[in-house]
Each structure stands twice: as C-alpha cells, then as structure tokens.
Amino acid sequence: MLLFDIDGTLVSFRGVGRRAFERAFQREHGRPDAAALLRFDGGTDRGITRLALEGIGVTATDLLIDALLATYLEELRAELLSSAPETYQVHQGVPQALAAARERGLALGVGTGNIEGAARLKLEHVGLFPHFGFGGFGSDHELRPELIRIGAERGAQTLGRALSDCRVVVIGDTPKDIDAARAIGAEAIGVGTGAFSAEQLLEHGAPYAFRDLTAPGALAAVLGD
Fold it and tell me: What is the pLDDT of residues 49-79, one digit of tens each?
C-alpha cells in the first residue's frame, strides 16, 4: 500500500492553509498572528493549533482546538473557492504515479497532518480525491508516526490482510515523513517538491529521494519494481 502526504508532496497551495488558519484565529481569538512563527510543513493541524494557542497564552484544551479547527475548515473552504488557478500546483508525475499504482492494484491512501475534512477539501479541489480509499489524518492523532500507523492499519483492513503482511510505503516531502515511516517499519520515499531537497531527505536517512516523481527511478521505487 502507498500512503501519500498531501501538502508539498501531491500538491502545493502557496499559503492557502496558513491564510485560513490566520482568519480562524482572528475569528476565535482576535489573533491572526498566532501561528506566524510556526512551520507548517511536516506538522499536523491539531499540533499546529495547540502550539499556536499556547503561543498566545491560551490553554489548549481539546474543546478549544476542536472549535478552532471547525472555523479553520470554514475558512479553508472559502480560501479554496476564491483562489486563482495559479495558487495551487499538482506536482509533476503525481497523476501518472497514481494511475500506474491503481493499474497495479495497489491500495492508495494518504498519510497527512491535515484533519480529514481539510484533506478532503484540498484533494477534491485538485481532482485527486477519487484516487484514495483510506488514510491517516491529523484528526486521528497529533503525532505523525501514530497517524501514519492508523493509515496503514486502515489500508490493511481495505486489503483484508494483516498489517505485518503488507508492504507499506510512505511518500513525503519532509524529514518528519521519513521519521514517521521509520517509526512504523515502513519504506520511505522522499520527494523534493516541498521545502526540502531530495539531497536533504537522503541525508536525513530516506532510502530513496527524488526531485519529483518524474525523476529517473522514482516510479519504479514507488511501485516496488
């Protein structure tokens, strides 16, 4: 099974998510700058929200996190609807890799720090949602290794097999994706389509990393050839 990260791996939205968070924090706490100093790449929506709340001196209860993320979903939907086509980019090789994996009969899922509603909004916006049948999301757990594990377990259920019998491949654009794959004993493939280059991901320990999924050897690595 393949577990793809979304932001920076499948598609980039050039600040759409951050702007939605800013507006959500403005509405809920009057602080659009709450997450200004936080890196979003490799993070999880719940984790980012918790850190941002703590950064403005608010106790990050589950109730407050849930309320903020509900508002965030409203703002994300509005941002996507109003965004120009040049605001987002499906990365090179992604449609071809997904098509090839489906042709092979591989189970396709996502492993993303986005909460499930945000993941669906983003994937629907770029027409990729129908490719994926399951996933692990930032709404499942704040820690990336755990949400990746949950995604892999759902993939195994989809296949009707024990997880220990499945080949699990995590494809992502950050060192945290590589770490999460290693933590659950999965294969990791890095793509340099986000803030980190393929070379940086290799230095971090990725067994494979490519400029993008059109690079020589990338598709073979994904398919296990």
Answer: 999 999 999 999 999 999 999 999 999 999 9
